[in-house]
Amino acid sequence: MSTDSEIIERSLADPEAFSGIFERYIRPVGAYIRRRVGADAVEDALSETFLVAFRRRSSFDRDVDSALPWLLGIATRIVKRHRADEARHWRSFQAVSGAAQPGDAGHSAADDRMDADAALRALAPRIAALPARDRDTLMLYAWADLTYEQIAVALRVPVGTVRSRLNRVRRKLAPQGSRSAARLTWMAKEES
User: How far apart (Å, rounded) are the C-alpha atoms in residues 49 and 69?
Assistant: First the structure.
């Protein structure tokens, strides 16, 4: 199995080889973009992400093991163009997700989903209100499941900046009246 660096290196002489990167990462990059811009804009943003990556493949740092942070960094910059749509998406999500009806007490999985839905609905306007750089960092962490180091590569910032941004986000999204983010379990993953 070829490494990402080997595939990208080979694609410099044989452009069709880049399809290996596309096939390897279309799903995680597409899922990340879909969550950021919604289903309506995902195809355009995904196509643009891989087009930009293909055009800039000669600048890929071949000392890096995975092309995923690089691709997600490109995707994040493309998503910035869709910032107004993203804020509308969060407001829409907040309105639509409130339509769910509670089930029986015997359906604990459904109850858990509703609890998670209610928590996300409450956070949606606060996430939309975050500065773009903090929201980008949060989404790469929470939705793309990147490590701090991978987020730093994706956003082209030092790891310490990632740590500061996520700490600031935790404080801002902590439950009302509490400065502790301990109850934000969806962000409590251990640092790698």
Answer: 12
List alpha helices for the chain, DSSP H: 4-13, 19-37, 39-55, 68-79, 83-97, 108-128, 132-142, 148-155, 159-173
Q: Taking the complete model, does pTM exceed 0.90, yes or no?
A: no
For residue 48, give the nearest of 68, 30, 21, 65 by alpha carbon. Answer: 30
Other C-beta atoms within 10 Å of 107: how many? 12
Question: Are the C-beta atoms of residues 111 and 142 closer than 8 Å to each other?
Answer: no
Distance CA 108, CA 136 (A): 33
User: What pLDDT does 180 receive?
Assistant: 37
For residue 191, which of 141, 133, 130, 136 has the smallest C-alpha distance? 141
Q: For residues 114-141, b (16+ Cβ closer than 10 Å) or e, as one string?
A: beeeeeebebbeebbebeeebbbbbbbb
| Mean pLDDT to the nearest integer, 123-150 | 88
- pLDDT at site 112: 55
For residues 10 and 21, what is the distance between their CA atoms, to the nearest angstrom? 11
Question: How many CB atoms are located within 10 Å of the residue 22 CB?
Answer: 15
